[in-house]
Amino acid sequence: MKTRAAVAWQAGQPLTIEELDLEGPRAGEVLVEIKATGICHTDEYTLSGADPEGLFPAVLGHEGAGIVVDVGPGVSSLKPGDHVIPLYTPECRQCKFCLSRKTNLCQAIRLTQGRGLMPDGTSRFSLKGQPILHYMGTSTFSNYIVAPEIAMAKIRSDAPFDTVCYIGCGVTTGIGAVIWTAKVEPGANVVVFGLGGIGLNVIQGAKMAGAGKIVGVDLNPKREAMARRFGMTHFLNPKEHENIVDAIVQLTDGGADYSFECIGNTTTMRQALECCHKGWGQSVIIGVAEAGKEIATRPFQLVTGRVWKGSAFGGARGRTDVPKIVDWYMEHKINIDDLITHRLPLQDINKGFELMRAGESIRSVVVY
Ligand code: NAD
Ligand code: DAO
Ligand code: ZN
């Protein structure tokens, strides 16, 4: 069949809209009509060329929602008509990683996914016979995709696609880092570096967890109002403080119980660790730093009880946890609507990237 898709031909170039050939689902795969997709900073990271694993030409996009149209042989958990959110972190429930219960990083299809291919080592997308690569196993910048069954969360059918698509990455990454990775407890002081599409979800996760002070740190003063609406109690702009770590330690009576780095900058990663409370403060790195960058601190920071952690997709087990987050949204326990600042048709997808680069949007969503 044919599918309209935004193709990334090479790093640093705008996407172009193409009519691609899409082969049907093979064993263990499903064909999904994507109804909406968010544009996330990680798509920009890959498109910019900063991602060492970035491959071209490819169909980017990893924050979608849609409807199953067809299933390949052996698929048992999904059927045509099911509403789904594609998962860039699958959940096979059988690999060593899934069975460990210690991580959400299922490895069942990791190698082929990282090479832009389906698990059998081939691509379903092509143009005039030239294979076009998949991206993160999702490629939601295509109106139709083929993806493995284990990389689909089945969700309730009354949830609107143009908001719940954001649960495919940003919402789950931010809220999950608070409740599953850090396990923030009521009354804890939380500090969030970066109040973008991820950081604002960390803020709403911290509020849900019953955190005490919720301190937001951002260079962009326009982010303050939105962050306060989501539960931030104090805002610090690093431009207004000689030493941001000292300012946080003073404000939180000795340091953060939990801090979250949602920027992808190794300097703020260090600040996020060093603003933590002596003896127990934990810092969670969510931001993805540029290729080749390294983090540093004095080891004594760890000797004296601070803990450095990382979180991918909020520690969520996608097929199990994503449907729960959709329920929280439908039950008004979390707010997604106010974070979606722009909706665009596919042909305007490059405008969505420009809005993100200019710091004008929180989330732009492409609606097919
Ligand atoms: P974003 O651009 O929407 O937000 C970043 C925010 O950081 C902006 O508000 C910006 O003003 C602020 N900022 C930039 N430099 C700063 C500095 N030096 N000090 C203070 N504030 C600063 O980005 P996003 O979509 O929220 O993504 C954040 C990061 O999370 C990215 O690196 C992205 O790749 C990563 N990410 C990680 C995961 C994961 O699973 N770990 C998932 C999705 C995204
Ligand atoms: O090595 O098992 C693995 C895959 C890890 C993927 C984690 C992705 C999280 C960071 C990238 C942000 C995605 C939007
Ligand atoms: Zn697995």
From TrEMBL:
<keyword id="KW-0479">Metal-binding</keyword>
<dbReference type="GO" id="GO:0051903">
    <property type="term" value="F:S-(hydroxymethyl)glutathione dehydrogenase [NAD(P)+] activity"/>
</dbReference>
<dbReference type="Pfam" id="PF08240">
    <property type="entry name" value="ADH_N"/>
</dbReference>
<dbReference type="GO" id="GO:0008270">
    <property type="term" value="F:zinc ion binding"/>
</dbReference>
<dbReference type="GO" id="GO:0005829">
    <property type="term" value="C:cytosol"/>
</dbReference>
<dbReference type="Pfam" id="PF00107">
    <property type="entry name" value="ADH_zinc_N"/>
</dbReference>
<dbReference type="InterPro" id="IPR013154">
    <property type="entry name" value="ADH-like_N"/>
</dbReference>
<keyword id="KW-0560">Oxidoreductase</keyword>
<keyword id="KW-0520">NAD</keyword>
<dbReference type="InterPro" id="IPR013149">
    <property type="entry name" value="ADH-like_C"/>
</dbReference>
<dbReference type="InterPro" id="IPR002328">
    <property type="entry name" value="ADH_Zn_CS"/>
</dbReference>
<dbReference type="InterPro" id="IPR036291">
    <property type="entry name" value="NAD(P)-bd_dom_sf"/>
</dbReference>
<dbReference type="GO" id="GO:0046294">
    <property type="term" value="P:formaldehyde catabolic process"/>
</dbReference>
<dbReference type="InterPro" id="IPR020843">
    <property type="entry name" value="ER"/>
</dbReference>
<protein>
    <recommendedName>
        <fullName>S-(hydroxymethyl)glutathione dehydrogenase</fullName>
        <ecNumber>1.1.1.284</ecNumber>
    </recommendedName>
</protein>
<comment type="function">
    <text>Has high formaldehyde dehydrogenase activity in the presence of glutathione and catalyzes the oxidation of normal alcohols in a reaction that is not GSH-dependent. In addition, hemithiolacetals other than those formed from GSH, including omega-thiol fatty acids, also are substrates. Also acts as a S-nitroso-glutathione reductase by catalyzing the NADH-dependent reduction of S-nitrosoglutathione.</text>
</comment>
<comment type="similarity">
    <text>Belongs to the zinc-containing alcohol dehydrogenase family. Class-III subfamily.</text>
</comment>
<dbReference type="GO" id="GO:0004022">
    <property type="term" value="F:alcohol dehydrogenase (NAD+) activity"/>
</dbReference>
<dbReference type="InterPro" id="IPR014183">
    <property type="entry name" value="ADH_3"/>
</dbReference>
<keyword id="KW-0862">Zinc</keyword>
<feature type="domain" description="Enoyl reductase (ER)">
    <location>
        <begin position="12"/>
        <end position="366"/>
    </location>
</feature>
<dbReference type="InterPro" id="IPR011032">
    <property type="entry name" value="GroES-like_sf"/>
</dbReference>
